[in-house]
Amino acid sequence: MVDRTVRKTSRAARRQAQTRADLIRAATELIAERGLDGLRVSDITERADVAFGTFYNQFKAKDDIVEAVVADALVGLAGSIENSPASDDPALAVAATTRAIVRIAYDDPTLARLLVNLEHAEARFERIIRPQAGAVLERGMATGVFDIDDLPTVLTMSIAAAFEVIRGIVDGRLGEGADLTCAAVLLRMAGMDAATAAGYAHRTLNQ
Amino acid sequence: MVDRTVRKTSRAARRQAQTRADLIRAATELIAERGLDGLRVSDITERADVAFGTFYNQFKAKDDIVEAVVADALVGLAGSIENSPASDDPALAVAATTRAIVRIAYDDPTLARLLVNLEHAEARFERIIRPQAGAVLERGMATGVFDIDDLPTVLTMSIAAAFEVIRGIVDGRLGEGADLTCAAVLLRMAGMDAATAAGYAHRTLNQ
């Protein structure tokens, strides 16, 4: 009896997660095809082959699914680096993840523009990035490569600084190379000396 | 003839500047007395004793005079530090100015809240702070205490990071001591090693 309830619940949860994934995939495709302007919830649900009302079980508003599309891309990117050999070294993981995420502004300006134009964009970026960023900084503190007294403040400053670099590139205020600077400066913020930080940022070039 | 034109122009410019200063002072008083909600342009012009229409020669909208009120306070604060003996040392100037500006969030939460709630708040903060921040970083680069390759990116990151600390304190996400961390981390970003940066941040405590 208990078993059956558990199985039922998990089946419902799995189905919910599948629907959510279908909606995000559909929105990603539609944004890639037509951009954000004119993206309609009915087009998303039609493409995902789910009922219109189902959308609002998963998302409060259109900006929330756009955040999910962006989060999917960023977390996927960060995850692929976390699973690479580079991630054994927290400093190299910070440098590689930072450069990969900032380079979106050069290599996938559509996605970067989605990110910086979201309502409460910084707060959403922080929500997406903070768990992984916090974990890698803590790992570096534990192994002694980072020197951070006040993690909440440093984390807040680091994420805000990286976000502003992405926005600066999207807006055309910052040019080529800002991703390298950003990676090196984030390592300085974590307590590395300038030369070592620059060395780590450059090592990611050949990854 | 030329002389008279020049004199006339400069008299008109002086009068304009005086009107602007009167409007900003009036708005500052009204905000201090009643807060931002319900601040009306007609109240500001009445208090400043100028014609209603004059306001719109100086400011496009109410948020623009609020920005001017905030800018006045921040630039005044930064200027008083620039004129102190501390400012001979660019590292001490960065530390002292950073702490003084971030401490507004603890000591004058009304002003800090005005700042973070402005429309395009980060962009406005950047516009206010960037000239002085850029000048002091350049001074430190020239004297060799700072090590910065890519000033536009570092400046963008520093200003965004400091702004987010102010917002974090206003929102209650960051606690006491965030101003010290912020000052030390900004010096790290400028290339100082962690111990020296922390030393400078703490030296400002007894200023």
UniProtKB/TrEMBL annotation, chains A, B:
Keyword terms of this UniProt record: DNA-binding, Transcription, Transcription regulation
GO MF annotation terms: DNA-binding transcription factor activity; transcription cis-regulatory region binding
One Pfam family from the record: TetR_C_40
Domain HTH tetR-type: 17-77
DNA-binding region per Swiss-Prot/TrEMBL record: 40-59
Superkingdom, natural source: Bacteria
Signal peptide bounds: none
InterPro entries named among the record's database cross-references: Homeodomain-like_sf, HTH-type_TetR-like_transc_reg, HTH_TetR, TetR_C_40
Keyword Transcription regulation recorded: yes
Family annotation (PANTHER family): HTH-TYPE TRANSCRIPTIONAL REGULATOR BETI, HTH-TYPE TRANSCRIPTIONAL REGULATOR RUTR
Protein name from the UniProt record: HTH tetR-type domain-containing protein
